[in-house]
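Case 309 in the screening queue. Each case pairs one protein sequence with one candidate compound; here the compound is zinc ion. For every case the pipeline is the same: read the inputs, emit a complex structure as tokens, and attach any notable structural observations.

Predict complex for case 309.
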Amino acid sequence: MMRLGLDIGGTKIEAIVVDEDNRVVGTPLRLPTGFGAPAVINGAVKATEMAAQQLGVLPQSFESIGVGIPGAVDARTGRVSHAVNLGVSELELGSILEQHLGTPVTVENDVKAAALGAYHLLGDTSLRSMAYLNLGTGLAAALILDGKVWRGSRGIAGEIGHIPVIPNGVVCSCGQRGCLETVASGSAVARQWPGHGDAPVRALFDAATAGDARATDVLDRLVENVAVAIRILVFTVDVDNIVIGGGVSSAGGSLLASVRGVLEGWGTESPFLAAQQLPKRITLVPRGSHAAAIGAALVGRQTTTALAS
Ligand SMILES: [Zn+2]
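Case 309 output:
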């Protein structure tokens, strides 16, 4: 039996199919995302049909479809709200897709789905806990405890991007001031260092390396605040491992090395902090690994397993 995972992002939908051993089948597909509820539904249906066609099967023959999407998601009902960058305020995405596709559909927040995918890609079942730190336009984390997504009582667990860290800082999209997201995210870089296109963080590293003082200043602050995020995750949930993903992580090894450098520096001033071995706990999500779409496929599986038992 095959399971489909759809990762619906602000610019693209990615579709991936996994078999019963969670191995990827066929080629991952990519479609542009439309804006507004009808376009999101159409995109998901189209991606499903293309994935089925590629494998010579009907959409109904997928055992389950899992969807990762930004915004607040009620995973039990498949209801999505406040997916602002998709132009969706409220949408019964799960039930609408089930009607269109004739297959059980589970919807999950995209960062939570990506966390599950990253946990699967680590391939270490002895790992009891993991945090996935998504550095995209915003900053959000999701927690995997004992192999499952930990939501907390209202689904807000891991939303560390909205912990204020700068007193009287800039106003955040959430209405608070000086949130971690306002200083450690793609949007934070774009605000402080505007006009550098689609990959501002990569460009920021290049400019800083070339000696641009403003770029160096912005980069230092970014790196330091990513290290703050790591420290918050370790001191609150003491996870075994933190996997960094999202668009900002495309800066790759240089980002990881810089963040480790900050954490090591803090460790020299605090034996207590040094003993927690923060630099050792962080890794990057493997490039081109499709963690979010794989995680979405696994979300579908988790639900069907739960219903069957
Ligand atoms: Zn905020």
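Case 309 observations:
- The longest helix spans residues 213-237.
- Residues 78 and 93 are 6 Å apart (CA to CA).
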